[in-house]
Amino acid sequence: HSLDAAVELTPPEGLSALLSLYREEIRTLTIVSQLNIVKAVTGEVYESTLIPGLIIGVKKATGEKCKRCWVYSPTVGSNPQHREICARCISNLFEENREGGK
User: Fold this and answer.
1) Is the dihedral of CA 94, 98, 99, 102 positive or negative?
2) Do 43 and 69 belong to one domain?
3) Distance between CA 56 and CA 10 in Å, rounded?
4) What is the CATH number of the domain that holds 25?
5) What DSSP line would sit under the chain, residue for residue?
């Protein structure tokens, strides 16, 4: 399952800032639990055939699986009142003053 994955990207020069800016959106679109822009990929490595110089690493995501969004996150269990969900879900469910929220 793709949400079991943590993806690391080592972009070619000139692409790092753009990928970093849209890191969370790329993570969401690719349906993986974690996506990081790094200087050197670890684990299983692939080289993009579409973007010259883009190196891609894939490994198992760290953390526990959130019962709400199914993303693996080190933040699951960090809130004593909501031990089964991640910090992002806690924020989405319980924080006030969110755009479109309470």
Assistant:
1) positive
2) no
3) 6
4) 3.30.2320.20
5) -GGGEEEEEEPPTTTHHHHHHTHHHHHHHHT-SEEEE-SS--SEEEE-SSSTT-EEEEEEPPSEEPTTT--EETTTT-STT-TTS-HHHHHHHH-SS-TT--
Q: What is the per-residue pLDDT for 43?
A: 79
Q: Map tokens 């309470």 to a residue.
A: 102
How would residue 19 be classed by pLDDT, with cut points 50, 70 and 90?
very high
Q: Which of 40-44, 47-51, 93-97 has the highest mean pLDDT?
A: 47-51
Write out the residue range of the structural domain in which residue 94 sits.
Answer: 63-102
Record the pTM.
0.83
Q: What value does the mean pLDDT take over residues 53-60? A: 96
Asked if residue 11 and residue 44 are part of one domain, the reply reads yes
Count of structural domains within the chain: 2
Measured CA to CA, the distance from residue 98 to residue 44 in angstroms comes to 39
